[in-house]
Every structure is written in structure tokens, then in C-alpha cells.
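Project outcomes to date are best conveyed with an example. Our students and postdoctoral researchers have been running inverse folding experiments weekly, and each run begins with a structure described purely in C-alpha cells. The record below, which covers 380 residues, was selected by the lab manager from last quarter's runs and is presented without edits.
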């Protein structure tokens, strides 16, 4: 164990690739793996960190990250050269688990999704996740979970995996956001535009955790008071709902902003590009997911974000819970005053976000402590 604590620890973080050129923007899981890798590289006990692909998809130069900076290998290439494997974006099976254990490798389950919510919806609404092939690994040496999933999913993790779960720091890095935004005007950062504002809602609309209805209601309440200040409401990831879901259409047709043709319901869009080219204000709402990369992307680029994520209430313009009227007041504040101090806002957002960055001393120290504790325990 002592040798590990002077920079010899070899760590792998799993990903599950489905395409050789898979986008970083279709969900946050691959970004999470890279940000965690960058964070662990700062720890004094760590010698190397590799991304470990658990699927049959080939690893090629088409991957959207620098493989010199974040080396990516298959499980077969990694399995004999690991001291710790963090299962994050791709699952290993019982035989792979046994092999690692036999060779002295510790296994961590890194939980960054609202798994209990996903399973509830899978069961109740016939959304198959694994069918009859569910494998719950019960040989983890530790369960690490990000803070925003603790309330909804901690007991789900602990009961099925038969281990206590520990809260770990949520980490984020603007590296991909900056890379994607280089070619945009102002490098994709917010810049005041004259005239009425374009409001954007970009919830995934895949489940109740991040759904567009309350943000649309906030826009509606503001539109009733200040229609002259709102050019358009754009709701992405909602085209299917607007075309096929009668209940959604019926609710939306009650709203002035819809009936007066000031709202559009669009498909999926790349976040950095849509912010840069189509957006002045972002409105958001979440249930049980109070830290989110999307919020960080928006605020790092200086866009006013009206949101209810209480774990980062010092970002953007915060309203509490499901209080649409308070959200409306925050949106009206944006429409009235934001552009008077937009540069100060940008500076302040980046100062707040510094606490989540790889290299933040508190984050590095906490992950080093977690690794030290892990290595002091016998392998399960």
C-alpha cells in the first residue's frame, strides 16, 4: 500500500462506446469520465489514468478527445495493469470482476445518474433497460456517488450492491466546451444583443428529472407581463412531444406565448452551438438533479441561467423548488438588468465554478483521501 501513496497507483475508468466517433454532447457520461480522469491525475498517489472501453466498438482517432492526454484502451489491454478500476460509463461482468480481484485490483462503482428514477420509469412505463439480463455486481470495494443523486438513489445503490455509499466531489472542466466554441463568434460567450430576447429551454425531456414544462410556464408568466421584451421561446428536445403527444399539445395550447406563435418546439441540438447562435437567456428546471453539466456550460459562457438547482444556487439566477412565479421574477430581472453588468456576471460565474475544476485543492485532497481509505481496506 505504501508504494501506491508516492505516485504508483494505476487507475482505469470505464466508458461504453457505441460509435467510433461518438459525440460528447448526447449525454454527460463520457464527459464525466474524462473530467474524473483529469481530476485523479492531480492526486499525489496516482501514476496513470486510462479510459477503459468495455464494449466491442473499436478505439480509433475518431474519438472526440485527445488520446495523448486521456489515453483510451480496451478492457483486455487494461486488465493486467490496474490497481483500481472505476466503473462509471461501462459495466464489467462477473468473470472480468473475478479476474481483477484475483490480480489484486480494487473495483469502485462511480454513481452519477439518478438510477432509482430510471428504474422506476423502466418498470412503470415499459422502458426496458436490461430485460432478463440484469447483473448487479456485489463485489465492489467502494461505491462513490455524486452529491445530486444521494437523496433519490443512495439506498438503491446500497441495498442492491451490499456496500455503504460515499459522497464524492462533483467535477467539471470547460475543456470540451472551450474546444467546441473556438470557431463561434465571441468564442461562444454571451454578448448582449439589442431588442427582445430569445429564451431557450434545453431539458432532455426523457424523464421527470429534467422536463421542460415549468421552464415554459416561467416564460409564459413573463410573456404575459412583458411581451414586448421576448422575441421567441425555443424548446429543444420537444419536437416529438409537440407532434405526437396530445396531452403535451393540449397543455401548451393554453399558453399565450404558444397561441401567439412566439414559441417553437425543436429537436436535439448541440449545446455550445445553440447557445452561441440562438440564445440570450436559458430557463431550466430539475427534480433530484441539482448539479448538472448543462448549467455549468451555460454559466461558464456567461449566459443568464434561470434555474432551481439548489446545490449551486450561487450560479445564475436561482429560484426555489417549483415556484414558477419566483422563476418569472428572476427572468424579469434578467430582462431588465442583466445586460448592465454582463461582464461582471461572467467573471462571477467562473469564480463560482472554480470549486468544481480539476486541480481545485479541496477536490484533489478529497479524492486523495478516498483513494487512501480504499487502499487501506482488504479487497472484497
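After processing, the design step wrote out the following sequence:
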Amino acid at each position: 500500500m505504501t508504494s501506491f501513496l508516492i505516485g504508483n497507483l494505476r487507475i482505469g475508468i470505464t466508458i461504453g462506446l457505441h460509435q467510433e466517433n461518438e459525440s460528447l454532447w448526447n449525454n454527460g457520461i463520457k464527459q464525466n469520465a474524462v473530467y474524473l480522469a483529469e481530476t485523479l491525475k492531480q492526486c499525489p498517489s496516482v501514476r496513470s489514468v486510462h479510459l477503459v472501453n468495455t464494449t466491442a466498438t473499436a478505439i480509433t482517432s475518431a474519438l472526440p478527445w485527445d488520446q495523448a492526454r486521456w489515453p483510451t484502451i480496451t478492457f483486455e489491454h487494461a486488465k493486467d495493469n490496474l490497481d483500481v478500476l472505476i466503473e462509471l460509463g461501462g459495466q464489467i461482468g462477473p468473470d472480468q470482476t473475478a479476474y481483477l480481484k484475483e490480480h489484486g485490483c480494487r473495483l469502485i462503482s462511480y454513481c452519477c445518474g439518478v438510477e432509482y428514477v430510471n428504474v422506476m420509469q423502466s418498470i412503470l412505463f415499459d422502458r426496458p433497460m436490461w430485460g432478463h439480463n440484469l447483473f448487479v455486481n456485489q463485489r465492489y470495494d467502494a461505491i462513490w456517488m455524486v452529491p445530486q443523486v444521494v437523496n433519490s438513489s443512495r439506498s438503491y445503490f446500497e441495498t442492491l450492491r451490499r456496500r455503504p455509499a460515499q459522497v464524492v466531489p462533483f467535477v467539471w472542466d470547460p475543456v470540451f466546451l472551450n474546444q467546441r466554441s473556438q470557431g463561434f463568434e465571441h468564442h461562444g460567450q454571451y454578448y448582449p444583443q439589442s431588442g427582445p430576447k430569445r429564451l431557450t429551454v434545453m431539458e432532455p425531456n426523457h424523464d421527470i428529472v429534467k422536463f421542460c414544462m415549468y421552464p415554459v410556464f416561467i416564460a409564459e408568466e413573463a410573456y404575459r407581463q412583458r411581451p414586448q421584451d421576448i422575441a421567441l421561446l425555443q424548446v429543444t428536445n420537444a419536437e416529438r412531444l409537440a407532434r405526437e403527444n396530445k396531452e403535451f399539445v393540449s397543455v401548451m395550447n393554453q399558453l399565450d406565448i404558444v397561441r401567439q406563435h412566439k414559441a417553437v418546439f425543436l429537436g436535439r441540438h448541440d449545446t455550445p452551438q445553440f447557445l452561441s447562435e440562438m440564445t440570450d437567456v436559458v430557463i431550466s428546471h430539475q427534480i433530484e438533479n441539482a448539479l448538472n453539466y448543462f448549467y455549468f456550460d451555460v454559466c461558464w459562457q456567461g449566459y443568464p441561467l434561470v434555474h432551481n438547482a439548489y446545490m449551486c444556487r450561487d450560479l445564475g439566477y436561482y429560484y426555489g423548488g417549483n415556484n414558477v412565479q419566483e422563476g418569472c421574477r428572476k427572468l424579469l430581472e434578467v430582462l431588465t438588468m442583466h445586460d448592465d453588468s454582463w461582464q461582471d456576471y461572467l467573471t462571477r460565474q467562473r469564480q463560482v465554478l472554480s470549486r468544481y475544476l480539476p486541480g481545485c485543492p479541496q477536490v484533489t485532497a478529497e479524492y486523495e483521501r478516498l483513494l487512501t481509505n480504499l487502499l487501506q481496506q482488504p479487497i472484497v
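The first helix runs from residue 29 to 40. The chain has two domains: 2-173+357-375, 175-355. The training component of this project remains on track.
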